[in-house]
Hints:
- By secondary structure, the chain is mainly alpha-helical.
- The chain is built from 4 helices and no strands.
- The protein has helices at about 1-45, 50-70, 80-110, 115-135.
Amino acid sequence: MVSESVDIVNAFALLTNFVILPAIAYGSQLALGALAVTLVYSVLRFSNFAQGDSMAFGTMLVILLSGYMIGRGWTITGIPTALIVIPVAIIGMAVYLLTMDRLIYRHYRKIKAKSITIVMSSIGVMFITGGIVRFVLGASAQRFED
Length: 146
């Protein structure tokens, strides 16, 4: 009888750790991206096709900063290093996005270009941002110990 209850607890722990928590994390990631796309469209009135690659750029910053801190031994026991570097990565991503806005989108807003022109420029920013991420990280999966 005790063995059956232990099996149920173990099954629930496995279900929680390998199905429920990853599903919540992935769903939250998708919802955050959808919210960002919605906000950009509602405020700036154009579809920013570079949104997904902008998220990948932020993820690249987290991976690079986490790898640097782990390599230096700057870790805190019990806290994933990625959680520590997320605020710094947010600042880095904000600087990159503001730079892209100043260099590219501001010009098209100033000359009151048609929205299709701004959308096409966002596709160019998407290719540039994706290229930077793939050049720095490569196309293979990234693994690091923490």
